[in-house]
Write a structure and sequence with these properties.
Pfam families: Methyltransf_11 (PF08241). By secondary structure, the chain is of the alpha/beta class. About 45% of the residues lie in helices and about 15% in strands. The protein has a domain at about 60-235 and about 315-320: Rossmann fold, CATH 3.40.50. Helix 9 crosses helix 10. The N and C termini lie far apart (about 45 Å).
Length: about 325
C-alpha cells in the first residue's frame, strides 16, 4: 500500500493479511514483507515509540521471581505496565537462573528496542544487537535505548540476516515470527548465527496458517545440533495479562484509545476494535469479554461473536540449545 496509512484499523487489517497469507512464490513473499513494513512504519512514531510490542504475561509466581531481582525497570522506561515486563522476563528467565552473563545477545524482531535493552541489563551482556525489518522502529530504538559499544540496532530481514556464522551466544524472538512468510528461513538463520552451546529463547502466538510449533519441531528433528530444553504452553498466563490490561483496567484502556484516536465517538467505534484485537482481546475466552463502559459494550458484544483470527488459541514458549555435534 502506497503512502502512510491514516487509520489504525487499516494497519491491523494489513498486518492480518500478512499473518494469515501463505505465500506461494517469491513475489508474494516480497509483497507480504512490504505490507508489514508499511504497516508498522505508519504508526511507529506514535503508538510504538517506547512501548513493548507484546501481549504481556501475568502470573503471581513469575511476578515474585521478577520482583526479587536487583533491577529497576523505571530507569529504562517509565511508561510500561508490569505485564510486558513479565513476558520479556519469562522469555529469558532460564538463562538468568543459569547466570548466563557476559554473553552476546541478538533479538530478532526487536521492534522499538526496549526488549533488547531490558534483556541486556538482566543478562549483563557483553554486547546486544536488535534487528527489525522496520526502519522507523530501529530508528526509535537507537534514539531511545542505544548504548555505545554495548547495545545497537539495525534494520534487516529475519529470514536473511547480515550477521556472521556462530556470532551470538543467545538469540531471542518474541511475538514476531507469525509475521514471517518463510519461517524455516528464519529457523535456519537462528541455527547459523548461534554458537555451539548457545540458546534460542522463542515465544509466539500460534497461527493455524503458520503452524509455527509443528514447523519448528520438524526443523529441529531434521538437525543433529538443536535440542529442545524447555517447552511450555503459556496461554493461561498471557490471557491473564490481556484480561487485566483490557477488561479489569477498561478505563485505562479507553483513555489510551482516546489518546491515540481522539474523542469522536464514530472514530472510536471504528478504531477501538482494531486496537483491542492488536492487544489480544479476542484471544480471551468469549465469556470474559464484557465491558462496563457504554461505548465499549457493543465492541465487546461484536468481538464475542467473532471467530478468533488465529485459529487455535495458544501461546507457546521454547528454550532451544544448539549443541556440539
Amino acid at each position: 500500500m502506497n503512502g502512510e496509512l491514516k487509520k489504525y484499523s487499516q494497519i491491523v487489517r494489513q498486518l492480518g493479511f500478512a499473518v494469515k497469507h501463505q505465500c506461494l512464490n517469491e513475489s508474494e513473499v516480497r509483497i507480504t514483507k512490504q505490507n508489514v513494513l508499511d504497516g508498522y512504519n505508519s504508526w511507529a512514531h506514535k503508538a510504538y515509540n517506547k512501548a513493548f510490542l507484546n501481549w504481556g504475561l501475568w502470573d503471581k509466581k513469575v511476578y515474585n521471581e521478577y520482583s526479587k531481582l536487583d533491577f529497576n525497570f523505571s530507569t529504562i522506561c517509565n511508561i510500561q505496565d508490569i505485564y510486558a515486563q513479565l513476558l520479556i522476563y519469562y522469555l529469558i528467565s532460564p538463562l538468568i537462573k543459569k547466570q548466563l552473563y557476559s554473553k552476546r545477545l541478538l533479538e530478532i524482531g526487536c521492534g522499538n528496542g526496549i526488549g533488547v535493552r531490558v534483556c541486556s541489563e538482566l543478562l549483563k551482556t557483553r554486547y546486544a544487537l536488535g534487528v527489525d525489518l522496520v526502519p522507523k522502529l530501529t530508528h526509535n530504538a537507537n534514539s531511545n535505548f542505544y548504548k555505545e559499544n554495548s547495545i545497537n540496532y539495525i534494520s534487516s530481514d529475519a529470514e536473511n540476516l547480515p550477521l556472521a556464522n556462530e556470532s551470538f551466544d543467545i538469540v531471542t524472538n518474541l511475538e514476531s515470527s507469525h509475521l514471517y512468510p518463510q519461517i524455516e528461513h528464519f529457523f535456519s538463520e537462528v541455527e547459523r548465527i548461534l554458537i555451539p552451546g548457545g540458546f534460542f529463547c522463542y515465544a509466539d502466538i500460534h497461527i493455524d496458517e503458520k503452524n509455527q510449533e509443528k514447523r519448528l519441531e520438524a526443523f529441529i528433528n531434521s538437525r543433529k545440533n538443536l535440542k529442545v530444553i524447555q517447552k511450555n504452553n503459556i496461554t493461561k498466563m498471557v490471557r491473564s495479562a490481556i484480561y487485566e490490561r483490557i477488561i479489569t483496567r477498561e478505563n485505562e484502556f479507553y483513555l489510551h484509545a482516546q489518546s491515540l484516536f481522539g474523542q469522536e465517538p464514530q472514530i472510536l467505534l471504528t478504531e477501538i476494535p482494531a486496537l483491542a484485537e492488536a492487544m489480544g482481546l479476542s484471544f480471551l475466552p468469549w465469556w470474559k469479554i464484557r465491558f462496563k463502559t457504554p461505548l465499549l459494550q457493543p465492541i465487546g458484544k461484536n468481538i464475542r461473536k467473532r471467530t478468533y483470527w488465529g485459529g487455535k488459541k495458544c501461546f507457546f514458549y521454547y528454550l532451544i540449545q544448539k549443541v556440539f555435534e
